[in-house]
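User: quick one - fold this with zinc ion bound?
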Amino acid sequence: MEISEDKWEEVTEGSTTFSIYKDADIIYDASVFYNPKMAINRDLTILSLSSIIKKEQKKICFLDPFAGTGVRSYRIMNELPQNSVEKVVVGDINPIAVNIITRNSTNLNLNEKMEIKHSNAINILDSLPKKKDTTHIIDLDPFGSPIEYIEESLRALRINEGYLFATATDLQVLCGKFPDSCYRIYNAFSTRLFLCHEVALRILICNIITSAGRLGLAVEPILCYHHEHFLRVKVKVKDSKDVANQQHKKLGFVYFCKKCSYLATVELSKELDNTLCSYCSEKLEKAGPLWLGNLYEIEHIEQMKNDIGLFSLQLEKKIEKFLDFVLDEIDFPPFFYYIPFILRYCKKEGVSINQIIDSLRAKGFAVSRTIFDPQGLKTDASYDEIVKVIEQY
Ligand SMILES: C[S@@+](CC[C@H](N)C(=O)[O-])C[C@H]1O[C@@H](n2cnc3c(N)ncnc32)[C@H](O)[C@@H]1O
Ligand SMILES: [Zn+2]
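Assistant: Sure. Structure tokens for the protein plus zinc ion:
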């Protein structure tokens, strides 16, 4: 394809200015994909890397095999401290993407530390040297699901016990619109109801954990979240069969009531005694297998929060709020109660989530909101206790 000089446009994200090739108004029609709405994903990547570099105390080698315009890699090299990044390998299958990356690499003076590959990601992953300190972090950002690239990435990360980052945008599959596809790709049952995003995220993590387990590896989540149209998973790879065995005990199912939001989780090896809701006798929905363990590592999140001021992030306030939410819910078990459905069960109207939170706290229960839903509530109070509190109003 002819590249026409008048279609280049300068864009600034974070504190990095780079060129994109803008040959269409709609992002999905452009020859090379660039979505400014994903800046939050890239801002959080910068903060995660900042946190990892401090923890690991070494220079990182980063692989970006679905680079598109290459924005993520420019930001990493430009915004993180110069002496903390050893090398970035940037690849894409699309020749125009590679053209954009080559141009920006020269303009931004990044050629020394940046290796550009025009290749299928699977070949890049396959050909990575399995040597000490060659690849510490792999960031998978394909169109749709990252699942077919997980195992190769884990193999490459084993020697350094590195980090795997992955974005998934196949939410229609993971959130239950196409159950046959979800079962084929992820071997799991999902849901379209209020727990769908958390279920989707935990199904994806479960798949990464089982892929790792087959290789004798464990992966520990450091920050996994849902935002708008994507899921983001960041995990640390551990070369330990013992840790992997322990982790597999935290795979299971969630059962929940689509009428009153009662829920229960159960390990894979166990059965739920009663699959009818104890409150309204509705048949409980079942989703999984999925990960029932933690989504975040507290030290990682706290360091990210501390480091916000080091960078010029346009979305600083939003990110601060997001990390506060995460810290709030960090110690709670998985999933949440959906307040509108509990109110319906109690036949109550006009009681706000904040009133319920205050009342539960006044009774000594731990309570938090959740990043998954503004009407979601996590608590160590039983369903009976929540009902009692609501009935006071
Ligand atoms: C979602 S976009 C990446 C966006 C980019 N990471 C960013 O932050 O703006 C996915 C990219 O993967 C590339 N791609 C798709 N399939 C690929 C494959 N099998 N190997 C390498 N690149 C591929 C596409 O050309 C596209 O540029
Ligand atoms: Zn019920």
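One thing worth noting: The mean pLDDT is 96.
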